[in-house]
Amino acid sequence: MAKVKKLVLVTAKHLPQHRDWLRLAEEVAKEAGVELEVREEDYVLVNQCGEQDEFGMAWLPQLLAIMEDGSCKLVLSKLPLDTATLKSDIGEAKKLALEALRKLEEG
Predict the structure, then answer these.
(1) What is the span of the domain harbouring residue 13?
(2) Which helix (H) or strand (E) holds 5?
(3) Mind listing the pLDDT tens digit for each residue in 66-97?
(4) What pTM, to 2 d.p., does this model score?
């Protein structure tokens, strides 16, 4: 069972949800007690270990975990929406991300 070494947020400052993702990644990293690295438009990394569409293309932003064994795993690729406001639900996203990190560490 490998532990999470650090989180990597792959994003781009010009994207509409950039600030939401940045806030989410900072909160998750702090709560998980791991380092956070923010990368601008690293499509190589997201194509290697992120989520892709039906054409094999990755999108941004995506939150990834670098494990102690060197592997890279997907943590979150889409923000859930609050059904009442249709805005990003950062609280639910944080819950999903922390759950994904626990599952990664459990194996």
Answers:
(1) 4-106
(2) strand 4-11
(3) 999 999 999 999 999 999 999 999 999 999 99
(4) 0.95
Q: What is the CATH number of the domain that holds 10?
A: 3.40.30
Between helix 90-106 and helix 18-32 the angle, nearest 10°, is 50
Taking residue 21's Cβ as centre, other Cβ atoms within 10 Å add up to 24
Taking alpha carbons only, the member of 65, 49, 57, 54 closest to residue 97 is 65
- Compute the distance between CA of residue 99 and CA of residue 107 in angstroms, rounded to an integer: 13
Give the count of domains, the chain: 1
Question: C-alpha angle with apex 82: 54 to 79, nearest 5 degrees?
Answer: 35
The residue assigned the tokens 């064994």 is: 69
